Amino acid sequence: xxxxxxxxxxxxxxxxxxxxxxxxxxxxxxxxxxxxxxxxxxxxxxxxxxxxxxxxxxxxxxxxxxxxxxxxxxxxxxxxxxxxxxxxxxxxxxxxxxxxxxxxxxxxxxxxxxxxxxxxxxxxxxxxxxxxxxxxxxxxxxxxxxxxxxxxxxxxxxxxxxxxxxxxxxxxxxxxxxxxxxxxxxxxxxxxxxxxxxxxxxxxxxxxx
Length: 209
Prior knowledge:
The chain is mostly helical. The protein has two domains: 4-115, Helicase, Ruva Protein, domain 3; 124-189, Arc Repressor Mutant, subunit A (Orthogonal Bundle), CATH 1.10.10.2420. The chain is 61% helix and 6% strand. It has helices spanning 4-14, 18-25, 28-41, 49-62, 70-78, 85-100, 109-115, 124-137, 139-145, 150-160, 168-183, and strands spanning 195-200, 203-208. The protein has a two-stranded antiparallel sheet. β1 (195-200) and β2 form a beta hairpin. α1 (4-14) packs across α3 (28-41). It is elongated and about 60 Å long.
């Protein structure tokens, strides 16, 4: 492995801050991951912050478990085909899956991009339309169960629709907004009562709070 000064210079090219570099150098596995990504990236100048963020996520996700053909992910992050952590995670799962099945030799760039949502773009209006379609289809249940199923709604949208590739925060904000539009803001009906067990001389009794 290169000396500390060389590694520091390499990690600076990736866009890591001085503090991040110092912390990284204390962790051998993370240092190895970043070094590998530096070599794969072959950068001559520091990329934009969103690219640095993606490469850092890739490093943390491969410091313990190696990923075959990781350079494909590195390059896709640099040229912005992979823009979110969800896409990077999908890429890791795809390549590791090929390795587990003994099909790494059948790697296809086209399949790789499809499995990772490359090219998926979302406008605010597009996210709103997909969320509205789901909310309208489940209106009666939402009205009945209210915010108890808000998290479930978000999970379904993120796992069974194209919104799995959309920015998570934007999807959540849209779900929240449409719930408010349909059933109003949270009120006392949405405060779940929990049982708390209180010690007594004879044992335990429960009360609602």
